[in-house]
């Protein structure tokens, strides 16, 4: 591109210089010839006036004096009463420039060698050619500077675009002092920010999906282990098989939840659900794991409550709290359900050492974990509950007690718990 731009600018410069230089040269040549002819005619007129005056005063005309007064001229005088006079050296006929002045008494003819005029013409033309070459040199310099100023930013923009295409979505913040290129750079920077945001969301979605799928897969694995362990007892196999089917259905629901979250549609899916049914199902799923850890789950509180949520979302949130208690807590896990004027409250507490003070305020932050975990479970659980219009809070650090606040099924919007993500 630089070569094409440079050649185009040079071509334009050459055409412009030729369009100006050639007519200028022609005009200069004509002016020099006209000036020489005018000068000769003026000299002839002066000579004629001087000769006539000398004759009227009866003075003699000295050819040597004329030659001295008009060097490099050949002078011929033809006036009545005076013999023809010739002064100077006659130039060659093919190079002779002649002008004459006439009156009633005669005429005077003045000639010069045209070579003298041609020498002046050549000197002027050499000057014009020098100016043309200087102009072309300036044009070449400007073309090189301009081509570099345009092509280097374009090459830089091409590198930035290639970097964006390879996944490096860092804004360059480069500006070039050219409005059009600066606008392109700004668009690329905005695109880089958007691409970085999209890539970040995709990575978060992949991480969230893997974490949310891990919990139901863990439950399904526990059921399959129970089936294998009780292979000789058909009743237990049947019971565990039915529980495994429930886990598969829950896994399908989690996948649906993830797809809905990816499409930003979960807000429209909250509906009146039976809280007891969700909690009973979670207790049934997690009892084998707690039993192997020589721990237990206890469900207490008000029964028969209905709340606005999604079955899959609430199941995932409760499962996350139970899994965290299994991994990091201790003793009996108590799930307490209560109802207040504004909310249906589900508390999950255990008898473990609780949450360290330094993590208490950051327990819901992404990638924050106090025991080598992923740091995603509570973050996702809080976002899932918030998407259903509820709230997940840590209400007590020691022992660790979490509470899920949901809207009543008959809530008309007056006591909306949250209006956005927690």
UniProtKB/TrEMBL annotation:
Keywords for this protein: ATP-binding, Cell membrane, Hydrolase, Kinase, Magnesium, Manganese, Membrane, Nucleotide-binding, Phosphoprotein, Protein phosphatase, Stress response, Transferase, Transmembrane, Transmembrane helix, Two-component regulatory system, Virulence
Domain HAMP: 148-200
Membrane topology value: Multi-pass membrane protein
Keyword rRNA processing: no
Domain of life per record: Bacteria
Domain Histidine kinase: 208-410
Cofactor(s) needed for function: Mg(2+); Mn(2+)
Main location class: membrane
Reactions it catalyzes: ATP + protein L-histidine = ADP + protein N-phospho-L-histidine
E.C. code: 2.7.13.3
UniProt-listed SUPFAM superfamilies: ATPase domain of HSP90 chaperone/DNA topoisomerase II/histidine kinase, Homodimeric domain of signal transducing histidine kinase
Localization, UniProt: Cell membrane
Class of this enzyme: transferase
Gene3D superfamilies: 1.10.287.130, 3.30.450.250, 6.10.340.10, Histidine kinase-like ATPase, C-terminal domain
GO MF term list: ATP binding
Transmembrane feature ranges: 125-145
Keyword RNA-binding assigned: no
Protein name, UniProt field: Signal transduction histidine-protein kinase/phosphatase MprB
């Amino acid at each position: 591109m630089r070569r094409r731009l440079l050649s185009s600018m040079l071509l334009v410069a050459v055409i412009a210089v030729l369009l100006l230089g050639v007519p200028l040269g022609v005009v200069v040549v004509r002016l020099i010839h006209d000036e020489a002819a005018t000068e000769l005619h003026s000299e002839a007129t002066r000579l004629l006036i001087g000769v006539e005056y000398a004759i009227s005063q009866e003075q003699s005309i000295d050819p040597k004096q004329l030659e001295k007064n008009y060097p490099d001229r050949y002078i011929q005088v033809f006036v009545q009463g005076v013999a023809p006079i010739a002064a100077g050296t006659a130039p060659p006929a093919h190079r002779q420039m002649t002008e004459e002045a006439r009156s009633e008494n005669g005429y005077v003819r003045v000639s010069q060698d045209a070579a003298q005029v041609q020498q002046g013409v050549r000197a002027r033309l050499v000057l014009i050619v020098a100016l043309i070459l200087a102009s072309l040199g300036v044009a070449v310099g400007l073309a090189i500077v301009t081509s570099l100023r345009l092509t280097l930013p374009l090459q830089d923009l091409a590198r930035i675009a290639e970097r964006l295409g390879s996944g490096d979505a860092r804004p360059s913040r480069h500006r070039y002092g050219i409005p059009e290129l600066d606008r392109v750079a700004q668009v690329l920077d905005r695109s880089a920010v958007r691409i970085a945001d999209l890539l970040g969301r995709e990575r978060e979605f992949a991480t969230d999906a893997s974490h949310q799928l891990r919990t139901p897969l863990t439950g399904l694995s526990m059921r399959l282990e129970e089936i294998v362990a009780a292979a000789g007892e058909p009743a237990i196999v049947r019971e565990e098989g039915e529980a495994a089917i429930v886990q598969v259905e829950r896994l399908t629901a989690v996948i649906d939840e993830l797809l809905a979250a990816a499409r930003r549609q979960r807000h429209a899916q909250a509906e009146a659900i039976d809280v007891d049914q969700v909690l009973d199902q979670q207790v049934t799923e997690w009892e084998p794991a707690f039993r192997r850890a020589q721990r237990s789950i206890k469900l207490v509180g008000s029964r028969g409550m209905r709340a606005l949520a999604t079955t899959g979302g609430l199941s995932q949130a409760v499962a996350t709290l139970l899994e965290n208690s299994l991994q990091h807590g201790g003793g009996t896990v108590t799930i307490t359900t209560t109802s207040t004027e504004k909310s249906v409250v589900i508390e999950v507490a255990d008898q473990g050492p609780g949450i360290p003070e330094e993590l208490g305020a950051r327990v819901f932050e992404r990638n924050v974990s106090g025991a080598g975990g992923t740091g995603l479970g509570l973050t996702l659980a809080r976002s899932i509950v918030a998407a259903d219009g509820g709230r997940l809070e840590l209400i007590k650090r020691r022992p660790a007690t979490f509470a899920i606040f949901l809207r009543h099924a008959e809530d008309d919007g007056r006591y909306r718990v949250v209006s956005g993500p927690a």
